[in-house]
Amino acid sequence: MGEVIRGVEFIQILDIRDLLKAVPWACHRRDSEPAATHPVVASDKLFYWLFQQRAERLQPLVASLLPQMEGYVFSAPVLKEREYRLDGLFLPPADQPELPTLILEAQMAADPDFLLRLNAETGCLLQQQQRQGRPIRQWQVVVICPSRQLNFGDPTPVEEFVERRVVWIELLSERLPPAAPPLQRALGMLLLPEAQLPACSVLVRAEAAGTSLGTEIDDVIAAILVSRFSGRTVPEICAMGGITVEDFSSSVAYREIFGLGRQEGRQEGRQEGRQAEAAALTLRQLQRRCGSLNPNQQARIQALPISALEALADALLDFQGPEDLKAWLSGNAS
Q: Which residue among 4, 14, 250, 303 is the one 20 to 30 A from 125 at the CA level?
């Protein structure tokens, strides 16, 4: 028997432990729309995993807006008044304020309140950034969804917002543009019938060769399939993705899901190794969020137990700068 992914626990990877909690959604369409022929599944954490360290992965999907995304920084801030976390916020370099901020929303199910909610939450974000002294002047909303023809509600009340501000990235095969970038086709694997996945994987890998995604495509496909099929064995997932077990075992997705996630705890040395790797990952994320850390801060973080590193990994998603880290260390670390 192969290793079964169901029940794996995750110790620290900035919410990668939630990557496996893919939820099947009923795809409610308008009465005039054809019934769905396959389930819509996705996890918001998948999109976080895709972009948390590689914001520029989004660029091929928004090429009509941006010819390149060098210097963009990704985050997933909480709208504090609504206790809601955005799927993603892509901020341009500070010295290029003329570039648009991109607000990401992944909506994989029909929802008749979606357009009204999207408009309201975008306004809340702009207001929150203004109050925090980081106003957003230029912005666009990027919606990743199976099809914009799903029942997202009457667009009339927010027609100007939808027409001027929203860019749709559709994933159903019949909605893909002829020149869809490899990442868009790969995300479409969330929706394809299982029998079509091996052929699609071959096509995506061939199209990704020679692009910026070429060296990472196995990781991306693995993460997508793990997100969709959380109860399958490793060999089954590899067969669906056209990936050898050896390639999958050496992928970043495998190391993060299995290498860090397995709580075997039989050997103290292995436990220490996992703690050290978790601390290193946390330090890298903190440096992206808060800038350079001083030696004392680095030492304190490296000494934290795994449980505290998990708490810090969750907290730093809301950090806005080094003062937030100082406050967390003061309140949580000995």
A: 14
